[in-house]
């Protein structure tokens, strides 16, 4: 019979690791970066999305956890692809870093929202 050899794997303790970023923080940073890259004003994007500027500001600051409908409304107002945004956020959360995400663009057009 073969001998069983111990496998010593040095694990990083909780104190050694940086905390993972919250999803809502990365989402907010990504949306703000996209809006600022376009030169869009908070009030204009909020109006197109059908939400208040205060609520959009809270989303961008990571204070609110928006519903999927709200996220879709904001990405539609920004003209960015929801799937690209979410894929970028997932990668950022996995890496544990900050955003600098490039999100895909859609042709400008009307934004449809479900009531």
If you had to describe this structure to a student in words, what would you say it looks like?
With 115 residues, this protein is mainly alpha-helical. The chain is built from 5 helices and no strands. It has helices at 23-38, 42-49, 53-60, 68-78, 82-95. The radius of gyration is 19 Å and the shape is elongated. The termini are far apart.
Secondary structure: elements and pairs:
Layout: H1 23-38, H2 42-49, H3 53-60, H4 68-78, H5 82-95
Structural class category:
mainly alpha
State the assembly state of the protein chains. single chain
The number of E-state strands comes to 0
**What is the percentage of strand-forming residues?**
under 5%
Alpha carbon gyration radius: 19 Å
Distance between the termini: 68 Å
Biggest sheet character: none
Q: Stretches where pLDDT falls below 50 for ≥5 residues? A: 99-109
Helix content: 40-55%
Q: Count of helices?
A: 5
Run of helices and strands: HHHHH
**Quick one: overall form?**
elongated
Mean pLDDT: 81
Name the descriptors.
single chain; about 120 residues; about 0% strand
Short description:
The chain is mainly α. It has helices spanning 23-38, 42-49, 53-60, 68-78, 82-95.
